[in-house]
Amino acid sequence: MFALLGQVRAPGADLSIAISVFVLSAVSIVLSGVIAVVLVRGYRRGPGRTGMLWLAVGLLLLTTVPELLRIALPTVTGVDTVGRSILVSATELAGLGAILWSVFGEGAR
User: Fold this and answer.
1) What pTM was computed for the model?
2) What is the Cα–Cα distance from 109 to 104, expressed in whole angstroms?
3) At what angle do helices 65-76 and 81-104 cross, to 10 degrees?
4) Which of 20, 23, 61, 92 has the greatest number of CB atoms lying within 10 Å of its CB?
5) Domain count for the chain
6) Can you tell me where the transmembrane regions are (predicted)?
7) Is 96 part of a structural domain of the chain?
8) What is the pLDDT of residue 31?
9) What's the pLDDT tens digit per position in 57-98?
């Protein structure tokens, strides 16, 4: 782990800021994943709990997927900033829609 951190370069920024952003992103991904697992377990406990599944999907689309897109798209592909912003905003909007569906839609019944 420390060998990997030794290879981190932050052109135009302080290295501690780059490491802090990376750590906070990792914590965000892990926490949202843990919460989604708890929600899916609640969904699997019995029938009539589809709202919990929609809530888990919404949470993943609102937090985990956009964070992974922010990291992966510039690293793996040549998608520009505007394209990345559109994809991230679209997944966040889909996540909000899934959460609204879990609260007010068919998943709430």
Assistant:
1) 0.77
2) 8
3) 160
4) 61
5) 1
6) 15-40, 52-73, 85-104
7) yes
8) 93
9) 999 999 999 999 988 888 888 888 898 999 999 999 999 999
